[in-house]
Design brief:
heterodimer; A: 28 strands; B: alpha+beta; 3-stranded antiparallel sheet; 8 helices
């Protein structure tokens, strides 16, 4: 396959996300402008201007206004805000102000709620905020429905569990937590033995939400049941994992990572192991690697149709890969 | 899958074709080519007429099925989004900016090993020596113990038992022998810094060599190491004498080094021999400065 290279960002990529139809690809980077691309040919559709810091995460509505998909974008940024955008025009609709950088954002199923995590900053501890999203942007308020506190260190990802009943969070303390999204009670915690040993960098839900994958700097990725938080599988690799994603079509998981950015210049690019590694989800067997980035992979996303995937690297490039027909017939 | 429709056989003959076929081309006598379909199943029939080698008229019917491979199933919304106006920085984007490029490099999903092969096999294939030992056993004759087809000389297990060969003038130092042994067991190259006993190599060893080292320059081309030793021995115990020799011509390059056991002896030699006339040249003798790198 010949990947499509998209060079719209000046700084390392932080996050990639497709909309539900898989025709738009949203990219966030440490430069201040989240960007939307057409996911088939990689043409740039637009940028969202207004943030004043690195943008860490984004999410797109899927059934927001009477089934008109992909109307709202939410972004979380290091400028201590999370912003709501009109996807089509790039207009800013609302700004949620925090006292510390916003790290992760996720719309609930139905897009009526959003979960936003904030970093520990000055004397503040990290927190998970639940916000109500109004259909009419003029009615939008910045009030939190619920604020969850407790985990030590940064919370790198917080997503909604099945039926929006729970919130799953993970971060620097290497523990995965499941919270009740109504009461804010901590329901489950991953235990030390089966859990990750180092910072969890990424979390990807399966298409049906029944299980999720976490990647960690302890050079492994783990597959968990969303309801019971039981460990299903562990994928061991030889480099820190920065990004994970799962194929919605085949039983494949993709792990991206590589050396820490600060150590990259000290070694050969081959030694850095900057490929996106494909593993069989069930057999844990390595299927192959896709090379190309000149730096660690920071973000991975699978197109919801399972026929293409994109990776974003520390090198500032987004690489969009449409699979060859052979990919779908790979036998282990 | 699909066959492109050509124009029906041209009634006009071109002079070039006539010339080549020597007037025997009678294609214009044939009925024109017929194309039927494609029908709702994508089946297309092409009927052609041709003369075969014996000059008989032959009817050829080609049936092909055209299939759309990727039935691009886009939702209405997605098609609508396709026509959205550009916004933000994308509005001012000029054609030459080339933000989106298709990689010139073909990237493959690199399999960790070829499908169907076992990991053990690849390992064996990687060791060319092991492969040789299976194939050309006759080639392998150990010069130490004389065994045929069992091992190479370098890997001889009886190496230590055999008498040291006369051919070697320089006895390998202790560190070299351990390194060779380590190398023999692993069968791969080990950099000196990673070999057993590496802690006393490197800078340590260089310092020992550089200690009390005296550089002698402006030597005549006939001067050899024994001559230099003869010249310097009166000043004290000498641990090493070296004269740089051009590898191609075998001639002296006109400088050398002498190492003394005692620093005082070296200093005395420098004082005495610097500016000393030796073989009609004036010697220059000084402390050898360690290499900067």
């Amino acid at each position: 396959m010949r990947p499509i290279l998209m060079k719209g960002h000046e700084r390392p990529l932080t996050y990639l996300k497709y909309n539900k139809d898989g025709d738009l690809l949203f990219s966030c980077a440490k430069d201040h402008n989240p960007t939307v691309w057409f996911a088939d040919n990689g043409e740039r559709l637009g940028t969202y201007r207004g943030h004043n810091g690195a943008v860490w995460c984004c999410d797109i509505t899927s059934k927001f206004l009477s089934l008109r998909d992909s109307m709202r974008l939410i972004t979380g940024s290091a400028d201590q805000t999370a912003k709501l955008w009109n996807v089509q025009t790039g207009a800013q609709l609302f700004t949620f102000n925090f006292d510390s950088p916003a790290r992760s954002v996720d719309f609930a199923v139905g897009d009526k709620l959003a979960v936003i995590t904030t970093d520990p900053f000055m004397e503040l501890t990290s927190a998970i905020h639940v916000k109500r999203i109004s259909r009419d942007p003029s009615e939008q308020t910045g009030e939190s429905v619920l604020i969850l506190k407790g985990p030590q260190g940064r919370i790198n990802r917080a997503v909604w569990g099945p039926l929006n009943k729970t919130i799953i969070s993970c971060g620097e303390d290497a523990i995965i937590r499941i919270w009740d999204s109504e009461t804010g009670k901590l329901l489950k915690e991953s235990d030390k033995e089966s859990g990750h040993k180092k910072t969890i960098t990424s979390l990807a839900k399966a298409a049906d939400g029944s299980h999720f994958l976490t990647g960690s700097l302890d050079k492994s990725a783990k597959l968990w049941d969303s309801r019971t938080l039981t460990l299903i599988k562990t994928y061991v690799t030889e480099r820190p994992v920065n990004a994970v994603t799962m194929s919605p079509l085949l039983d494949h998981v993709v792990l991206g990572g590589g050396q820490d950015a600060s150590a990259v210049t000290t070694t050969d690019h081959r030694a850095g192991k900057f490929e996106a590694k494909f593993y069989d989800k069930i057999l844990l067997e390595e299927i192959g690697g896709v090379k190309g980035h000149f730096g660690p992979i920071n973000a991975l996303a699978f197109n919801p149709d399972g026929k293409s995937f994109s990776s974003g690297g520390e090198d500032g490039y987004v690489r969009l890969h449409h699979f060859d027909p052979e990919y779908f017939n790979i036998k282990i | 899958m699909s066959v492109s429709t050509q124009n029906p056989t041209q009634p006009k003959l071109r002079w070039g074709e006539l010339d080549e076929d020597d007037g025997e081309d009678l294609d214009f006598l044939l009925p024109p080519r017929q194309v039927i379909g494609p029908d709702e199943n994508g089946i297309k029939k092409v009927i052609e007429y041709k003369f075969n080698d014996e000059g008989n008229k032959v009817k050829i019917t080609t049936t092909t099925r055209t299939r759309k491979l990727a039935n691009a199933r886009l939702s209405k919304r997605a098609i609508e989004r396709r026509n959205w106006a550009k916004f933000g920085d994308a509005v001012r984007e000029d054609v030459g900016s080339r933000l989106t490029m298709v990689s010139t490099e073909e990237i493959l999903l690199e399999r960790p090993r070829a499908p169907g092969s076992k990991p053990e096999e690849t390992k064996v294939a990687g060791d060319s020596l092991a492969k040789l030992s299976k194939g050309g056993a006759v080639l392998m004759v150990c010069r130490t113990c004389g065994k045929t087809g069992d091992h190479w000389t370098a890997r001889c297990p009886y190496k230590d038992l055999a008498a040291p060969s006369e051919g070697f003038v320089d006895k390998p130092t202790a560190s070299e022998t351990t390194a060779a042994a380590a190398g023999a067991t692993k069968g791969t190259y080990v950099p000196p810094g990673m070999r057993a006993g590496a802690e006393r190599t490197g800078t340590d060893m260089r310092r020992r060599n550089d200690e009390n080292s005296v550089r002698v320059t402006n030597l005549s081309e006939d001067t050899r190491e024994p001559d230099l030793l003869e010249l310097f021995r009166p000043f004290g115990a000498v641990s090493r004498v070296y004269v740089a020799v051009d590898q191609k011509t075998g001639m002296s390059r006109g400088f050398g080094f002498v190492n003394f056991v005692n620093k005082e002896d070296a200093q005395r030699a420098i004082n005495k021999l610097n500016g000393y006339g030796y073989d009609n040249l004036i010697l220059r003798v000084e402390w050898a400065t360690p290499r900067t790198n």
